[in-house]
Amino acid sequence: MPRTANSHRLRLGRFSEPGRLYLVTLTCHRRYRHFTSLTAGRTFVGALISVRHEARTLCYVVMPDHAHWLMQLKVGADLSRVVQKVKSLTTRQMRSGGGLSGPLWQKGFHDRALRKEEDVIAVARYVIANPLRAGLVESIGAYSLWDACWLDG
């Protein structure tokens, strides 16, 4: 399979800074809709929980063909390694369940380090509103595959 043109550019300038907030986007291979069931989506969520010692999840949304994850990198963690671990854990779990035979994820990922002055709540609202903008639901309460740390009370 040929490499995507300029895919190496996703890594240029990538820097892991402990305590920094990152908005990470992971896309399914060829934009295939792997996460159309609650079970498949929860597999991704389980992977996020597995890396909780390396990254604090502020919010996430799992869309049918991609996922957004707003997280804070913990001391000693490397952004690329944490994301690779999430992708690997999700892939292994979906393969063991028999629902996946080929690749799950596109190579690489997109990340954006948030600036300290950015409104984190506004970014989280933007992430969580993805199913609304995509027309998947009319109310975010009708979509099951999202969460935010501010809801824990």
Automatic annotation (TrEMBL):
Gene Ontology biological process terms, A to Z: DNA transposition
Top-level lineage group: Bacteria
Domain Transposase IS200-like span(s) in chain numbering: 17-130
InterPro entries given in the database record: RAYT_transposase, Transposase_17, Transposase_17_sf
Molecular function via GO: sequence-specific DNA binding; transposase activity
SMART domains for the chain: Y1_Tnp
Name of protein: REP element-mobilizing transposase RayT
Organism whose genome encodes this protein: Ectothiorhodospira marina
